[in-house]
Input
Amino acid sequence: MNKANSIDFSFEYGVCDQITPLVRRVIANNPGPFTYTGTGTYIIGSNELAVIDPGPVDNDHLEAILSITKNQKITHIIVTHTHNDHSPLSKYLQEKTGALIYSFNENDINTGDENKFEEGYDKEFKCDVGVKDGDIIKGKDWTLQAIHTPGHTSNHLCYSLEEEKILFSGDHVMGWSTTVIVPPDGNMEEYMQSLEKLLQRNDKYYLPTHGKMIKNPQDLVKKYISHRITRENQIEEAIKSGNNKVIDIVKIIYADVDKKLYPAASMSTLAHLKRMIDNDQIKVSGSNLEGFYEIN
Ligand SMILES: [Zn+2]
Output
């Protein structure tokens, strides 16, 4: 909904870029409307390595990761969340390396319904080590702390690299686009709280899974919070002027957007409406896309 028009950094698929002294990145060749230029897989450390978000099942990408790390040992495979562009290659990388797989620690996690507004969920995914908010994962020359940031998905984790004050922000905060929030697993109130949670921290840079390094992360996070509040004010105005169905609200607040994007815009609007109901700003008879929304 809020996307850059052109690619604003340079890279080549399968080629390793040294991003900081401890962090390398290789991008998978899966560009698309939800992945921008593709999944950025991060390799952390200089000897015993962590790989964050191995990416989709793609043999060229697996070969690239293995060749970049051939004289070193991958000891940890770490996942931000279980969308199909992030986690499925984990088990293939594990077969080659024996590394343990780390991800969010909830057995009964809602992995979401399939929908066409974002990447699907990796239903096959299994982790070896469940991680919760605040947990520390340590290698020889790196320390990662997990930060639970639900919103985009309920099981989303960011990881901070303590040695370099870098936050791997996954799909929670990306430079090229606002993240997609699709109910029921996506939750706008949790997303807003997870943005506020990042404002309490002092990470110097963010490295999102899609797109380039974010250099003024606090400014961007504040911008995303105010963008969502503006949307909710627009929704409230639209309802006040007699637009009580999701599609009618979408036609007003996304007047400048291609109609092809209306189904996705409707899901995003629905995520806002659910938050506004929880905050007692509005009420609904019926539910979801069919509901009749009114000011409380
Ligand atoms: Zn995602």
User: Anything to note?
Assistant: Residues 81, 83, 119, 152, 171 surround zinc ion (CB under 6 Å). Residues 115 and 182 are 8 Å apart (CA to CA).
